[in-house]
Description:
single chain; alpha+beta; Alpha-Beta Plaits; four-stranded antiparallel sheet
Amino acid sequence: MAAFVVVQESIENEAVFNQYRAKAPATIEAYGGKFLARGGNLEVMEGELPYKRLVIIEFPTRQDAIAWYNSSAYQEILPMRLSSSKGIFAVVDGV
């Protein structure tokens, strides 16, 4: 069953985040992941989002999503994201 990594974030250091943004796709693709939404035009229809940017990544399974996050390739670039943005990072099972 597919699983989705859902990210809500605000970018605080564009230069550092752009370095992360350039390297992240290859790490995601290596685990069968693909972007469904990547910071496009976001319109809140109800309530308030605490962060300005939304990313949704689909993986074949929850195990693939977790393996990607814990992979050495992703862990190597993770400090770039953590130092340049703040937000929420979660995985949810599809239906």
